[in-house]
Fold these 2 entries.
Entry 1:
Amino acid sequence: MKSGQIEIEVLQHLGSKEGKVKKILFVVMGLVLVLMAGCAVYPEDPPIIPPTPTFTNGAIQDIGNQPPDDMNWISPGKVNVANFYPGARAEYPVTVHNGNDTACSFAVGYRYPDHVDGDFMKPDIEVQDWVIVADMTPILAPKETRDILITLEMPEDADTFAPKWEFWISVMDTSQGQVKTELCVRWLVTMR
Amino acid sequence: MKKLLVAMLLALVMVVAFAVPAFADPSQDVVVTATPAFIAISNAPGTWAPNDIVGDGVTPKGTTGPDTYYYSNPLGDELSPSDPVVDGECRFTITNTSTVATNLTVNFPDFTGGDASTNSDDGSNGAATFGAYSYCTGMTYSTGKVIAKVTGSDPMKEALAATTDIKWGLAYETQTGAWASGTPMESTVVITATIDI
């Protein structure tokens, strides 16, 4: 109880100098503000954990026409990736169908585009290192349909070389003759 | 004292606003969407040996001379397609069962074996380089034929309608320099289908 009485007395003593205390407190709070603002997180620092991709469409679920059983085909025709940034990751499978009557080897891989659409740019050379194909040489049984996961993973320290860019995923039946057909999925990437 | 408390409260709110990442970083999830469609084309025949049409007036057959234009034209190995190109002037047929409009691109890589001619990528030939073009039915051949490069050719056909077949062909101008090896060369032409956007 004695110490409590002393405290009261001190406060009463300081109350007579309220103006000075206010000024000191304002200065201290100002300094705190400046220090805290310097420690804040800004947009140029990407989050360490990449977000989970959102799949809004199935590749072939909504088609009115059924894919042919006796022809090679792939799905989808294009993949849009939006809000992409260094350090982010996007995934989508390419569905490959073997229309042959025999087992066939396919080559699946990154493809530098022959042409790009509208505002989209051709990719920098290092983009080929950002694309991971789960199985680059699948052997499909006759009439088999298989999903092969494609992952686009942009390193955190990579330069954003264009706001919009495009690359292709190539699928080719390697058993063809001198004139071959190649089916490609267009990946259209928009940076945030 | 009230003023002091209000000032302190305001300062605290500002500090929190700056420090919490949700306010500082307007990040959103990466969004991946895919067009529900499939791409399906096949091509036939899968081979072409320039100068192999017997009875077209070009002799000898089975070999190619230097500095000569050859066409995959069933009407004649050295007969240029007309304007516009008709089906009968096209060796190859693409069967297209895609559910969306597609672009078709033809690339003609360098030869391997023999004299190993390389593609000039500009449609003209040179001492050790060849020129190549692709064409398709309905095209004005003289002005519309498309240079077939090693890679990166322009589309031979843009926005080919879904489930619509098309006939097409190749033009190949051999190198100006005389053949030295006397052995066959081979190249694998690739026709690429992509969705038209």
Entry 2:
Amino acid sequence: MMNKNKSIAILNSSPPFSSANGKDALDIALIFGSYEQDTSLFFQGDGVWQLINQQETDSISMKNYLKTFAALEFYDIENIYVCATSLAQRALPDDFHIDNVTVLNSNEFSKELHCRHIILRF
Amino acid sequence: MQTLAVIVTTPPHSNLTTTAIDYIDCALKNGVKIIGVFFYQDGVLNASTHLSLANDEYQSTKQWQRLHNGNALPLYLCATAAEKRGLGDELGDNKQSNINNEFILSGLGELVELSSKAERMVQL
């Protein structure tokens, strides 16, 4: 029997397609979710690009792993936070390809992140 | 006794891997029990039997072997990350392995177990 004694933050700061970091982070999130662990996702820096709507990957011969984000809700991963400053610095709108995304300013983002027991970053 | 689990995501030639090994050594020296090291992403390359590091460079493979043999430290590899990088224990017609004996092929479920059992989990 697995304890459910810790909260896990997965911190994404890499853009979606130039490395496998985003996909590797999502795989970890889904596994923690399937074991019913208290899992939250955080996006900051270039990681915010992972949430932006209407991305098309056929032209760069990539599998679009962003579609798998839709599965998060089935694993009860409902806490998804994005840093407002990172969005603003990149002039990105808060138009995301999944629901349930909470936009937080840097202070709130930091507070949420630091109340988790474990932080894994990709 | 305090318990710790460590995640390594960097390859054997990275200085961040050296940092991970130093960190583990220091924790052990201070009486922390390390319940396992989990290798993910390029970290799985640390298990390859085919590494050839120059003599005058840091020998990370030997250090992992030393840590495992001297402290019964379990070294877990993410199987999916390993396969993507050409590592396996049943390769070709002869079912050969190119993973060092000290490492155990496992899955991400092991990572969840480690996170649940250890008081602390640190990623390097």
